[in-house]
Amino acid sequence: MLPLLERYHDVLAPTLLGHAGAPPLAGEITGEVLADGVERAMDEAGFEAAHIVGNSLGGSVALQLAARGRARSVVALAPAGGEAGESFVLERSPEREESIKEALRQQTTAREQLKAAAPYAEAILASAEDRRRETRLFSTNFEHIPAELLAHHMRGAAACKAWVPLIEHGLREGWALDAERITCPVRIVWGTDDKILPWPAAAARFRDEWLPHADWVVLDGVGHCPQLDVPLETAALIVGFTAG
User: What pTM was computed for the model?
Assistant: First the structure.
């Protein structure tokens, strides 16, 4: 979406800490560490406040920055952390600890498989059937997504050293948002075919507790990444909101 957004705005597109191409996560991982990194990038670029857009984990970071007063507006695409029942302190029990360990084993295995596959990304994505398999979790409409972009995503995910540590922190500590401090306009966009953060369950706390007053947009037949699924419509939703 960058070329579309750059017609109307100066755009800063930072890479989150610990992700491919960014500085590594250093020290203790907290629920604020990624927002800290983006805030430093904003400072270095001279952005005191900005219209902030993020998807999934990035959507959560965008809302954290809004609570810090750094956002003129936020468009959050399927932001993470809104599942019902999450809180500052999650129940500790042997059963829960075992479920956390199993989830981490699965994520570690998935990342190792992805690292092994990444050098062969172009060959793996050679056919439409292969691209459908690669995109099935995050995109419903995939035919228009270039194979080279999907290969770039595969290599980026494989190189993300923060993947497992961030998931472990989220599983153990849960998620909290100081929503009362968010005073800027917020638009939340969610696809009904989201397989990673399913609508509407994954949006429960945003809708019921934190941001019921937000401008809610639900996209039928769209997956977890609207910016890939329907990029023109998503860009219009962003620009139309920031222009207000």
Answer: 0.91
Question: Could you say which DSSP state residue 180 is in?
Answer: G
Domains of the chain: 2-242 (3.40.50.1820)
Please give the distance of CA 138 from its chain centroid, rounded to a whole number: 11
SS3 content of the chain, % helix, strand, coil (to 5): 50, 10, 40
DSSP state of 179: G
DSSP conformation letters of 121-177: HHHHTSSHHHHHHHHTTT-S--TTS-HHHHHHHHHHHHT-TTHHHHHHHHHHH----
Strand-pair partners of 73: 51
Q: 148-200, pLDDT tens digit by residue?
A: 999 999 999 999 988 888 888 877 777 789 999 999 999 999 999 999 999 99
List the beta bridge partners of residue 50. Answer: 71
**31, 169 in Cβ contact below 8 A?**
yes
Both tokens of 35, joined, read: 């927002």
Q: How many angstroms separate the CA atoms of 18 and 161, rounded?
A: 6
Q: How far apart are CA 114 and CA 117, in angstroms?
A: 5
In degrees and rounded to multiples of 5, residue 75 shows phi and psi of -115, 110
> What does the DSSP assignment read for 15-66?
PPTTSTTSPPP-SS--TTHHHHHHHHHHHHHT-SSEEEEEETHHHHHHHHHH
Strands 50-55, 186-191: pairing is unpaired
**Using one digit for the tens of pLDDT, what is the confidence trace for 199-235?**
999 999 999 999 999 999 999 999 999 999 999 999 9
